[in-house]
Design a protein that fits this description.
alpha+beta; two-stranded parallel sheet; single chain; 228 residues; 4-stranded antiparallel beta sheet; Alpha-Beta Plaits; 6 helices
């Protein structure tokens, strides 16, 4: 009986030690997850802060950076609206002239459908409304040019929640270093002008590779966005 009792105590100690190990493992896992979450959040905030003039984010806490970003975007939108010329619509009573120039009017509407950004895209790799067989259909207007290891990316997309942060984080995960970023908004559209450096080890070495990757990122952001 004594031997049996000793075995029971040994089993209890073993079971107790396993429970302690499981609890400790769970605690360490929770700490690691929380640490990674905070690290990722700090990285996002650092990127967001780098995109603004210092006067908009004088303090480094989350509320100040996010608030400064909102104010900065509002200021950019106000400046854009102040630069836009007033739109004039001229009506004509000459139905014959109207019918004769119907094709010209349609071409004008199509050419100006992108509003103030229509002249920004000379040879896009992707378009939401491709006009030729050389342009692939995508979720946004995307044009990439490259000089050696430096790439210039222009994106005209529909504004979506947290799109900028997701776009920047996804681009950097592809071993593309963001050198400069300019954001311009108009109504429900946003134009991103991005300067990138392709790092060693990146799988994206051509304009087609980068454009395709950006299109995939924007498609994923669109899928993750709530239905409008």
């Amino acid at each position: 009986m004594a031997a049996t009792g000793g075995e029971r105590r040994k089993r209890r100690r073993t079971r107790s030690n396993k429970n302690k190990e499981e609890i400790e493992n769970q605690r360490m896992t929770h700490i690691a997850v929380e640490r990674n979450r905070r690290k990722q959040m700090n990285e996002y905030l650092a990127v967001l802060r780098s995109l603004m003039p210092p006067c908009y984010s004088q303090r480094g806490d989350q509320a100040s950076i996010v608030g400064g970003a909102i104010n900065y975007l509002k200021e950019l939108q106000h400046q854009l609206q102040s630069m836009e010329p007033p739109v004039k619509i001229t009506a004509t009573e000459d139905t014959g002239a109207t019918a004769a120039s119907a094709g010209d009017q349609n071409n004008t509407i199509s050419a100006s459908s992108s509003g103030p950004f229509s002249d920004f895209f000379a040879f896009p790799q992707y378009s939401s409304r491709p006009s030729s067989s050389s342009v692939a259909e995508g979720t946004a207007e995307i044009e990439v040019t490259m000089v050696e290891s430096h790439a210039s990316v222009k994106i005209l997309a529909k504004k979506r929640p947290k799109q900028l942060l997701k776009l920047v984080a996804s681009i950097q995960s592809l071993r593309l270093t963001l050198l400069h970023l300019n954001v311009t908004t108009h109504d429900d559209s946003v134009l991103y002008s991005i300067s990138l450096k392709v790092e060693e080890g990146s799988q994206l070495n051509t304009v087609e590779d980068i454009a395709a990757a950006v299109n995939q990122i924007l498609m994923r952001i669109e899928e993750e966005s709530p239905l409008s």
